[in-house]
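Query structure, 129 tokens:
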């Protein structure tokens, strides 16, 4: 009976994280622009900023594409994209950005960060398909 309960517990734990993936964690250093992740068929994205040095600042935007090669900036338009709190994240230490992509007509999305001088910020992206 104990083995059965242990097996059921392991199965339940495996379903808790179902569908969530962590994109590669990357850093934004100084005055640079970084294309963080090319996400195929993502339905939701969470971005978390962690200050590593200097004062975390700059911005993060979402881009979309039909072919995964040519991307353009997207904004909150007619309920296609839902951004929380808005369509551009201002980078600060501990900033969290949520994006609902469930109505997007585009299969490819990526997160693009632009930093400013004298800072290093870790950008962690989690997404769900």
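Result returned for the query:
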């Amino acid at each position: 009976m104990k083995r059965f309960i242990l097996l059921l517990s392991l199965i339940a734990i495996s379903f808790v994280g179902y569908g969530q993936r962590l994109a590669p964690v990357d850093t934004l250093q100084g005055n640079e622009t970084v294309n963080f992740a090319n996400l195929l068929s993502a339905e939701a994205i969470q971005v978390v900023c962690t200050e590593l040095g200097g004062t975390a600042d700059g911005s993060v935007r979402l881009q979309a594409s039909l072919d995964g090669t040519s991307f353009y900036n997207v904004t909150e338009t007619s309920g296609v994209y839902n951004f929380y709190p808005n369509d551009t994240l201002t980078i600060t230490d501990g900033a969290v950005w949520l994006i609902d992509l469930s109505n997007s007509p585009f299969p490819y999305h990526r997160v693009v960060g632009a930093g400013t001088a004298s800072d290093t910020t870790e950008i962690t992206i989690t997404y769900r398909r």
